[in-house]
Specification:
There is one protein chain. By secondary structure, the protein is mainly alpha-helical. The chain has three helices and no strands. It is elongated and about 55 Å long. The N and C termini lie far apart (about 50 Å).
């Protein structure tokens, strides 16, 4: 069921048990997908707020200082 290779880290028993439960419920058809509640705000509504925050971060003195120290500017 699980394939291991040198590039993939080994999985602990908790992760394996979780995967077993998910696969079993998928096979039985009892898996319930997580659904956001009606109270959640869609990303398209919040997108402008995220964009404004991202622009503020890029224009901040700390960000410019970090990029200068890393030789990016």
């Amino acid at each position: 069921m699980f394939v291991r290779s040198a590039s993939n880290p080994s999985l602990d028993e908790t992760t394996r048990e979780s995967a077993r439960r998910v696969m079993t419920s998928l096979i039985r058809g009892t898996y319930q997908e997580h659904v956001l509640s009606n109270g959640s705000v869609p990303f398209t509504v919040k997108q402008s707020d995220y964009l404004a925050g991202y622009c503020r971060m890029l224009k901040s003195l700390n960000y410019r200082h970090i990029m200068t120290c890393e030789g990016e500017q």
